[in-house]
Design brief:
alpha/beta, single chain, Protein-Tyrosine Phosphatase, Chain A, 14% strand
């Protein structure tokens, strides 16, 4: 079972989900799940098709937005669209949660001060300081 790490009231991250985690996510109040893992990234990971079935069976909206370190910034527009389409709190997952929170952080650039975004990441256990240039110079 994956730990759900709350970043804001409307956003949390997790490592790889299992089928049972989708029902747990629904019970925890999430309305949508965003999968940031490419299929076949690691042996034994749930495929996007299986994750979609598990999400839909649990009554969750599902968004497949696979990104890697090198394609992270290319995923920002799609992530903004997914977060905007979600009708409530979102749980995003990848292998460890790092890509998911980094992608979320990039969607927050210009909406929140960089120090706030980095601080929310730090409180959740992630160091987002390397993203500071992309988050803008706006300070909190």
């Amino acid at each position: 079972m994956a730990d759900f790490i709350q970043v804001t009231p409307d956003f949390a991250v997790a490592g790889q989900l299992t089928e049972a985690d989708f029902a747990r996510a629904k019970a925890a109040g999430f309305r949508a799940v965003v999968n940031n893992r490419p299929d076949n990234e690691a042996p034994g990971q749930m495929t996007s098709a299986d994750a979609r079935r598990a999400a839909e069976a649990a009554g969750l909206a599902y968004f497949d937005l696979p990104v890697t370190g090198s394609t992270l910034r290319d995923g920002v527009a799609a992530a903004q669209a997914a977060f905007g389409a979600a009708d409530g709190p979102v749980l995003a997952y990848c292998r460890t949660g790092t890509r998911s929170i980094s992608l979320w952080a990039l969607t927050q650039a210009g909406k929140r001060p960089a120090d706030e975004i980095i601080g929310l990441g730090r409180a959740a256990g992630y160091d987002l300081s390397a993203l500071r240039p992309a988050l803008g110079a706006r300070q909190g």
